[in-house]
Design goal:
Elements: H1 2-7, H2 13-44, H3 47-72, H4 77-100, H5 106-120, H6 123-135, H7 140-168, H8 170-189, H9 206-219, H10 221-237, H11 244-251, H12 256-280, H13 286-306, H14 310-338, H15 344-355, H16 358-372, H17 374-391, H18 393-401
Helix pairs in contact: 2-3, 2-6, 2-7, 2-8, 3-5, 3-9, 3-15, 3-16, 4-5, 4-6, 4-8, 6-15, 7-8, 7-12, 7-14, 9-15, 10-13, 10-14, 10-16, 10-17, 10-18, 11-12, 12-14, 13-14, 13-17, 16-17
Length: 406
């Protein structure tokens, strides 16, 4: 226990407030994504529409990520964080009211997904920058493990809770819970003491700041390699999660509760991976953990797709969760350590754009799933991802060979 306390930045009160806000937002995100996916597939029978809803959550990262990163340098991040949570609260409240009135349509969920995705685009340049500032560069690896690990754990509780709520109180009750949780998160966010002061009015123009972030990335081979893997993972790897409800219903004959439990296994694996990283990872190994996790993740996807027994499918998802923890924790950590301090928000904005490449993958996977089935689509996407990693090895190889500074 003493070792655990020594590893975690428990003395930084703002860290734990920011961590709590992140846990709530991510928990609700996964809860709503599962509920939306099951609802839409039940109503339409279209795997493409299920993938499209998740795609809409990522699209704003590609559209606004770099701009969000540049703006974050000129805004009070605490106020932005609270405003974002309140926006999510209002959106979920609107869906709950529409469902109560019996007027909920698929396009309402599409709009809500896009709004939530816009809020998601602020997380890296706003909340995660504040987390790093709260603990300092020396503990940022552990801080990211704690934050991303527990957020990934919400991928376990969120889908499970979403499936149970959807089966018991319907989509109306699911989104009502979201409203309550967001209200608690906003209250905690108001207690964050960290404040950032906006520069003077004659500061560098917005799009020049965006361009500076892109120039920094172009000049650093390690940043390029890190972001290349981010794009490949988000285009060919992570979109498979949108097919879990489809596989669960069509191939494994599961109901909403069973689908939620199945989807939660990915989050459980991510939690286990995060705990291991927090205790065992050292800065010199960060890059190799990141790359190895990405490769193993791609190799595991066909295993999940081919499983015929729910228990074995859950086991495969448990393993993908561990691999995804290696990717997601080290992704943010590497960018934080590699980016110059004075323009770190702008580089995180570029990271958000790379994560925002995901809609391409969701569109691709959704079309494939409608054409050849969800299982075939997952396998094909994983194979394409491995080929992409092979061809880009000269770029991410520089990350593999480089040691991280702290």
């Amino acid at each position: 226990m003493a070792r655990f306390v020594r590893f975690l930045p428990i003395a930084a009160a703002d860290f734990w407030r920011l961590w709590f806000v992140g846990v709530v937002v991510f928990l609700v995100r996964w809860l709503e994504m599962l509920a939306m996916a099951v609802f839409v597939y039940h109503e339409t029978g279209s795997a493409f529409l299920v993938a499209a809803l998740t795609m809409l959550r990522l699209l704003p990262m590609a559209m606004f990520g770099a701009i969000m990163g540049a703006l974050a340098d000129h805004l009070d991040r605490r106020r932005v964080l609270v405003l974002v949570v309140c926006c999510l609260l209002v959106t979920s409240g609107a869906i709950a009211v529409l469902a109560h009135l019996g007027a909920l349509a698929i396009w309402h969920l599409a709009v809500a997904s896009f709004i939530n995705g816009t809020a998601w685009a602020t997380d890296n340049p706003v909340r995660r920058i504040m987390l790093g500032e709260a603990v300092g560069a020396g503990k940022v690896g552990t801080a990211m493990s704690v934050d991303i690990g527990t957020n990934n754990a919400s991928r376990m509780l969120g889908p499970m809770l979403g499936g149970v709520l959807l089966a018991s109180v319907g989509i109306e009750g699911t989104f009502l819970l979201s409203v309550i949780l967001y209200a608690v998160a906003a209250t905690v966010g108001l207690r964050v003491r960290h404040r950032s002061i906006a520069p003077a009015a004659d500061a560098e123009p917005l799009f020049r700041r965006v361009g500076e972030g892109l120039r920094i990335v172009r000049r650093d081979p390690k940043l390029i390699g890190t972001l290349v893997i981010t794009v490949i993972f988000n285009v060919f790897g992570w979109p498979f999660t949108s097919m879990i409800p489809v596989i669960g219903q069509d191939n494994l004959a599961l109901g909403p509760e069973g689908i939620g439990l199945l989807a939660s296994m990915d989050g459980l694996g991510a939690l286990c991976g995060a705990v291991a990283i927090a205790f065992l990872a050292r800065p010199v190994r960060y890059a190799r953990i990141y790359i190895t996790g990405s490769i193993v993740y791609m190799l595991l996807l066909p295993m999940f797709a081919l499983m015929q027994i729910p228990l074995l499918a859950g086991g495969a998802l448990l393993c993908t969760g561990i691999a995804s923890a290696c990717f997601s924790i080290m992704q943010s950590t590497l960018i934080y350590l590699l980016a110059p301090n004075e323009i770190r928000s702008r580089v995180f904005g570029v990271l958000s754009v790379c994560i925002g490449s995901g809609p391409i993958g969701f569109l691709h996977l959704g079309l494939l799933a409608d054409a050849i089935g969800a299982r075939g689509a997952i396998i094909a996407s994983a194979v394409e991802g491995m080929i992409a990693l092979l061809f880009t090895a000269p770029l991410w190889g520089k990350v593999w060979r480089g040691a991280m500074r702290t």
